[in-house]
Amino acid sequence: MADTIVEVKNLVKRYKELIALDNFNMKIEKGEVFGLLGPNGSGKTTTINCILSLLNYNNGEIKVFGEEMKSTRYDLKKKIGVVMQDVAVFDELNVYDNIDYFCGLYIEDKETRKKYVEEAIEFVGLENFKKFKPKKLSGGLLRRLNIACGIAHKPELIILDEPTVAVDPQSRNKILEGITELNRKGATIIYTSHYMEEVEQICTHILIMDKGKNVAEGTSDELKRSIKNTENVIVDVKKLEDRHVEAVKKLNHVYDVKYMSDRLIIKCAGGRHNISHVIEYFADNGLDYDRIYSELPTLNDVFLEITGTSLRDQEA
Amino acid sequence: MFLNILCKKLKICLNNKQNIFWTLMFPIILGTLFTIAFGGIFETYKFEEIKTAVVFDTDDAQVIENAKNVLEGISNDGKKLLDIQYMEYDEAEALLKDGEKVNGIIRVKEDGKLTLDIISNGNESTIQQSIVTGYNQNVTMIEKVAKEHPEKLGEVIKGISKSTSYVIPKSLGGDNKDPFISYFYNLLAMTTLFASMHSLRIGNNTQANMSKVGARANASPVRRMSFQIAGFIASYLVSFAVVEIGLTFLLFVLKVEFGGDILMIYLTSALAALLGVALGFFVGNLGSFSLEKKESILVAITLTGCALSGLMYGDMKIIIAEKVPVINKINPAAVISDSYYALNMFGAGSRYFETVIYMVVLSLVLTIGGLLLGRKVSYDSI
């Protein structure tokens, strides 16, 4: 039990008629980068706010570091760092003072705090912006400041709630590298996102949630292995007749085919050389195509297969 | 930890330049305008006696004698300010209509109070009104004391006689602007209440459902009370500084004579600043409205309060005192301006300390109310 950092059991949270969390369960072990993946409105932030005891919940149990989490458990809160979904800093304070303020809520010793603040600034790459007020920072730099404010006190558990929303690619990579680095230094991370590529890139354990429920969890490979889909063959081809689409459906190991926007997506379950069979069919029938390639299933395929909808569709 | 929060909160308040600018500029600009406007009035009326008809609507010899003594005794540097003519009402009315003969009719009523009949508002009328108001306030006070503490009546009458002989002559004529000093009291009250904008954000910044930094603060191992207290102290220090700077400008640059001990005036302002901060703190913790809505509520309270205490119309406070006296006891602007008035009129005595007690009680009620409203530790929705 000592290695379980967060344990959520049968958590129920209702907003009037809406059920935001429906008997939600989750267990996070020490040293994990735990990805909480789900579309907007799936309950990720509500889960985080319940874990932090910011929100009341209707039913269930939450344990942090093996102990029941309550709003007055300041000893537990001391070991947690949180990076909110929205930037939470003071416009009136500069970069250094903002980090110093939030770090000061956890670290009393002035010298230690100074060291930690400097390290946090270096960690997020804001050395040249120490005296800048938040309004003078770009969106990406602001996100980095937001992260620095949440991690400067070197917490054992770091909760990052969609830290890369509206961030430029350069800052995004810097943030993701930073999270991996924090984990390497011993922090357990909870990372929520609706960007599956990010979750796939950095998370050691992934939980997919939808409509307040835990719909699947495991490592990225485990999740992909758990579904029927093993390979997607994609063909960029113009004006393909329906009869050919139907014929491709009948090829070995093919269980689903979609043709839209001059793109044929062939889903395969098991089998080898699926792409060869497709190429062979196109050659035999004298069909021209621009490009053909094969992809392993993504977390989106996992989500699609489990829930019947795409993560990306729900974002819109 | 607390000190770090306090220092940063202080920095936040000081870096809120828009708030600082307006709370500082407000007394400077309006005070200057008041001085220019009222200064002109007094230049015109430096040594002119105001023709006044006095009519007795009573046969009570004591009331008549008291009124005569006071009205005839009003003077400046030995020179009478009212040119009094005693007559019947019909005659006085005819002279008033004539305009040149008398500027107003003071009627002495059965209950000992005075009323003023005027045809048009003017500077003479304002001075006459000021005299009538002051006289009536004293009569009311004497009646109250006679009813509630008859044993202190002699002492009060003596005190009033002293203050009447001091205030009224001093407040009229020369370079003093005392008939209009209540406008400056109200200006200071308004400055104090506008400075409460500094404390409005405390509640917002500590509530997880109101602001992002509030959510972050609630996720930290620091009790909400620490944030609230640190924010309160920081806001108070800034409000105090702003109010005292405004006061210093009025006293030493515009040379407004507030009357009373200068140290006591500064101490009164310090206490007024506390009341202002408490008001902002209370509104800031009030419900889950947006910051903009809370700002609107605070501005509405401030403007209404100042209007009721006489910032726009000098006699409004007296009207309120006669019609709905309780408002003057709970209206922060009225309580603050009344404390300056009491200090000027009666010195640092019981009348002044009564206003001090009102300020302290109101500050405590608002602060405790704010703390109670903001004590929630977790939320149903964020």
What's this, in brief?
The complex is a heterodimer of chains A (316) and B (382). With 316 residues, chain A is of the alpha/beta class. Chain A has helices at residues 44-51, 74-77, 95-104, 110-124, 139-151, 169-184, 196-202, 220-225, 242-249, 274-284, 299-307, 311-315, and strands spanning 4-15, 18-29, 33-37, 59-64, 67-68, 80-83, 157-161, 188-193, 205-210, 213-218, 231-236, 254-260, 263-268, 291-295.
Describe this structure in words.
The complex is a heterodimer of chains A (316) and B (382). Chain A has 316 residues and is of the alpha/beta class. Chain A folds into 2 domains: 4-225, Rossmann fold, CATH 3.40.50; 231-296, 2-Layer Sandwich (Alpha-Beta Plaits). In chain A, 35% of the residues lie in helices and 28% in strands. Chain A has 12 helices and 14 strands. In chain A, helix 4 (110-124) runs antiparallel to helix 5 and helix 5 packs parallel to helix 6 (169-184). The two termini of chain A are 40 Å apart. In chain A, 42% of the residues are buried. Chain B is α/β, with parallel strands linked by helices and 382 residues long. Chain B folds into 2 domains: 2-39 and 179-373, no CATH class; 47-169, D-Maltodextrin-Binding Protein, domain 2, CATH 3.40.190. Chain B has helices at 2-15, 17-44, 61-73, 89-98, 123-148, 153-171, 181-194, 197-206, 212-219, 224-253, 262-284, 291-308, 316-323, 325-330, 332-346, 350-373, and strands at residues 50-56, 75-76, 79-80, 82-86, 104-108, 114-117. Chain B has a 4-stranded mixed beta sheet, with helices on both faces. Chain B has a two-stranded antiparallel ribbon with strand order 2-3.
